[in-house]
Amino acid sequence: AEQGCGDAQHSLGVSYLEGHGVSQDWGQAVLWLRRAAEQGHACAQFDLAVCYAIPEAAQGEAVNQDMGEAIAWYSRAADQGHARSQLALAQLWMAPGDETQTPVTEEDRRRGVQHLCNAIPQLRIVDDAVGWDLALQLLRALGASEPAVVKSLCLACGTRAKEVRAMQCSRCKVACFCSKQCLLHAWSVHKPDCKRWAQNPPPDGTAAATQRA
User: Which residues contact 99 (CB under 8 A, 6 or more apart)?
Assistant: First the structure.
């Protein structure tokens, strides 16, 4: 790490972050994560963003919470295709809470939707169950307002609809599945949404975010 190896710097930063093999030290964690992040290490950029996003009380006040800094590092990692960073930005901009500290614009929300569309296929590839569950919640929340986004991705596996002969749910006409197996697998999760969307059809139209996905 002292010789500038980004992977080693990232690993050392995570060790300090989690207290593996060394005493937990958020200050040292940020120092080493930043060194790796500044070299373009996407995982380090994500972990550094997390450090700035967590309230001071959870880290012993070693690092000041700074959502602007967190978003900047999430964005740098997301630009490299880091799925968890894309998901973090999607969550911040699509379902903002007080932690964002700044007003979320419609453009921010659109960018969040785009990040979500980019993250979902990757989360399934790397088998990130926690990330996938969160992404699915965000995707389902779009059904009432932007059905075209929901129609662009299989609700079970995240495959882009345009890459396969996707099938649409015959009842709600919103949810999309790449196969009958995916439909059966996701039915228990989709069933409440299916009933709601069938009773109150969302407006038709294609979202700009979907066109770019």
Answer: 53, 67, 92
